[in-house]
Amino acid sequence: MATSEQVLDTFTNDLRAAIAGEVYTPADAEYDAKAHGFQQVWKHTAPFLVDPRDENDVAAAVRLATAHGLPVSPLGHNHGYYGPITEGVLIRTIPLASVTVDPEAGTAVVGAGTTWGEVAQAAAVHGFTPSSGQDPSVGVVGFLLGGGLGAYTRTYGYGADHVRSMRVVLADGSIVEASDTENTELFWALRGGNSGFGCVVSVTIELLNLPAVQAETRYYAADDIPVMFRAWARWIQDLPASFNPLGGVEPMPDEENGGETMTPVLMLRIVHVGDEAEFEDVLATFPTDAEPMFVERGEAQDQPVEEPFPVREGAVFLRELPEAAVDTIIDALGADSLFVAGAIQVLGGATEAPDATATAVAARDARYAFYVATMGEVAFDPAAPVAFQKVADALAPWASAEVIPNFNGGLNRMATLTSPHAGDKAERLAAVRAAVDPTGTFARQTGVDVRSR
């Protein structure tokens, strides 16, 4: 009888023979660097890692894995995992990265493994902007599969709303196109349904032809956080959809001790798409309950994360933001908080799509997204998810039943991680998964099993 080691060796050899790209195991020196990226809390130790040369390599690897009953997990820039991948085959999509812009159609074909920063650079040459996230280092495919909440979402909708088609490798190794005219139920699910359907190898997206964009960010000292956060939360309630506000607490080097320690500051950013006069008129009504430490103009998005680090996140999507909810959030982000950063992003506007059933995007009823993060050693503290769950419970009276998967994280309860969608939408997604992946090859691709509901 063959030993487990012999079985592994045989599969490794079969995999290497089946593809033109490279195959690695944890015994290889290159494995750790290739298996890890942004998310450093969990260490992926899957026995096989594939660096494909093209989509045919992906198909061959998936076909072989399914035949042997092994799970498959696509691995991009490692932002969207809820746990470690310890079994089966990791398929690294970064070698598939590419961007081809069609300026006449206003679209781009984007290979899996491409970041939004790369798409933005290619689109800008032709005067376009992608419907991307706040961080340009985030991968395109994972962002779109989760729904895609970005800097201009109130004005233009979720990133998933701008997907024209997706090219997908299914569990049987077939490569299919999903669009409004082909594999339509799969196309619905892929736009916001997150995981458990297949390995997306490329997407075609609509690009935005933005008019003028203005942005201003104001920073306030720690002592002013309660009064300014409350004032800002009242001010944002009735802003037009051309305004995209984001406000939260984040760490900043403390200048009083030469930057050796961090101090919390309140960051209030407003991004406007349209006429500058309207921007200035609305900005003139901004709360003046405290003076900002300093003001920045022109930055609509965050700077890319240069170095990976341990981080665990959690999110609650809110239908309302009454004073009691704001007080709960302020308390959660207080001086003794385990959360290094936390923010509220204002939704509504184009997120409330006229045909909200056209995609599987979660939490269409939410008007606010509240999310927090623990970083560094605190990310490993078992008290952090307990603390977040208390906050989530306190916010429950105003919460949506769903959470955008992009903002799910290791702080959310397991039930939310495995099924961020609810009701008929969750049932419909389960039916699509059962149809395209009956053996569950992709069921654990984010580190949790989507079949556990």
Explain what this protein looks like in three dimensions.
This protein has 453 residues and is of the alpha+beta class. The protein folds into three domains: 92 residues, Uridine Diphospho-n-acetylenolpyruvylglucosamine Reductase, domain 2 (2-Layer Sandwich); 114 residues, Uridine Diphospho-n-acetylenolpyruvylglucosamine Reductase, domain 3 (2-Layer Sandwich), CATH 3.30.465.10; 206 residues, Vanillyl-alcohol Oxidase, Chain A, domain 3. It is built from 13 helices and 16 strands. The strands form three sheets. Strands 13-10-12-11-15-16-14 form a seven-stranded antiparallel β-sheet. Strands 5-6-9-7-8 form a five-stranded antiparallel β-sheet. A four-stranded mixed β-sheet has the order 1-2-4-3. α8 runs antiparallel to α10 and α10 packs antiparallel against α11. The longest helix is centred in the N-terminal third of the chain and has 15 residues. The radius of gyration is 22 Å and the shape is globular. The mean pLDDT is 91.
Q: How many individual β-strands? A: 16
Major sheet characteristics: 7 strands, antiparallel
Q: What's the order of the H and E elements?
A: HEHEHEEEEHHHEEHEEHEEHEEHEEHHH
How much strand content do the residues show?
15-25%
What's the CATH topology name of the largest domain? Vanillyl-alcohol Oxidase, Chain A, domain 3
| Helix run count | 13
Number of domains: 3
Strands side by side in the biggest sheet: 13-10-12-11-15-16-14
Just give the CATH class of the largest domain. Answer: Alpha Beta
Cα separation of the termini = 38 Å
